[in-house]
Write a structure and sequence with these properties.
Layout lengths: L2 H14 L4 H11 L2 H19 L7 E5 L7 H7 L3 E6 L2 H13 L5 E5 L8 H11 L5 E7 L10 H12 E12 L9 H13 L7 H9 L7 E12 L4 H11 L10 H16 L5 E12 L11 E2 L2
Parallel strand pairs: 1-2, 1-4, 2-3, 4-5, 6-8
Antiparallel strand pairs: 5-7, 6-7
Helix pairs in contact: 1-10, 1-11, 2-10, 6-7, 10-11
């Protein structure tokens, strides 16, 4: 490889670092089966809600950290009453707004807010009264959004959502990348390697461990908490798009900052280890569903792979 060729793909990788997270998420959604994987679990959540709720109508749901919401069509169809989409990414909300207007979709409301307001009980109550018209929802989704909140604060977050925003019967569905992996082809390994090497940070956001903590909490004694581990695959034959997804995985710049020299080392690794050999990126991810006052009969399962 010539110096000019190397400079070209390094510049391409650096350019992709400047792209908006909504664009990065759209590439991930388009060239991975992550949203299909999540959609399967969302469908199961609604099946259980429909089976146990006294009425099949008036389903209200809240998607927290929705992004541009590739599951939008599924959620909007299943929530025959009202769907709230909350995010702090205005570009993502604008993309949804354009679709709502273009397709004349009713009953969908966009909320530009930082979901960490739910860490505080008073702010959560204010949100319920002002944004939800004082009416709790029956389903809450946190799909790949808990990365932006320390695990030490998850308990407050989930307690407030469970106690205040979720109705007497309902469900909370969370999805998060697994925090440990020895497989160098996984998003988890890449994050731990580069964030650890350059930012002295190791992923400790373990949703499976957190689910076990909730099961011991008296607040959730009437909850049925299930977990599942799945695997998804990402591949696209365009280096700039590959790197756009890598920056999203490495939480740059929203959480971690990398110097130009560090970025170049990341780009070199991805080009040589993934792009040249045309290797797919794998993500092991964990699902947790908290059913409130619903005995679903479901048990936690492991290791489902969606291809």
């Amino acid at each position: 490889m010539t110096d000019s060729e190397e400079k070209k793909w390094i510049m391409s990788g650096l350019k992709s670092a400047q792209t908006a997270i909504s664009y990065q998420n759209s590439i991930w959604s388009r060239y991975s089966n992550d949203k299909v994987d999540i959609g399967v679990e969302v469908a199961d959540v609604f099946k259980n809600l429909f089976r146990h709720l006294p009425s099949l109508s008036n389903i209200r749901a809240l998607s927290i950290g929705c992004g541009y919401e590739p599951q939008f069509r599924l959620l909007q169809a299943l929530c025959d009453d009202t769907l709230y989409l909350l995010d702090l990414d205005q570009d993502a909300l604008n993309a949804i707004k354009e679709r709502i207007q273009r397709q004349s979709i009713k009953g969908v409301f966009l909320l530009y807010k930082d979901f960490r307001i739910f860490l505080d009980a008073k702010q959560t109550e204010d949100f319920l009264n002002t944004e939800l018209d004082g009416k709790p929802v029956k389903a809450i989704f946190l799909h790949h959004s808990l990365y932006y909140c320390e695990m030490s604060k998850w308990n407050n977050l989930i307690r407030n959502l469970f106690n205040i925003v979720l109705g007497p019967k309902g469900a909370i569905h969370c999805v998060l990348m697994a925090c440990e992996s020895d497989n160098r082809s996984t998003t988890t390994w890449l994050y731990n390697y580069f964030a650890g090497r350059f930012c002295n940070h190791h992923n400790n956001q373990d949703i499976l461990k957190f689910s076990n903590q909730l099961k011991k909490d008296l607040l959730f004694k009437r909850a049925n908490i299930t977990t599942k581990t799945t695997q998804v695959r990402f591949f696209v034959d365009n280096f700039e798009q590959v790197m756009a997804v890598i920056w999203m995985i490495l939480l740059y710049p929203s959480v971690h900052q990398y110097s130009d020299s560090q970025k170049k080392k990341i780009i070199q690794h991805i080009y040589r280890e993934f792009f040249l050999p045309k290797k797919a990126l794998i993500q092991n991810q964990n699902h947790m569903v908290i059913y409130k006052n619903l005995c679903t009969g479901q048990k936690s399962t492991k290791n489902r792979t969606t291809i």
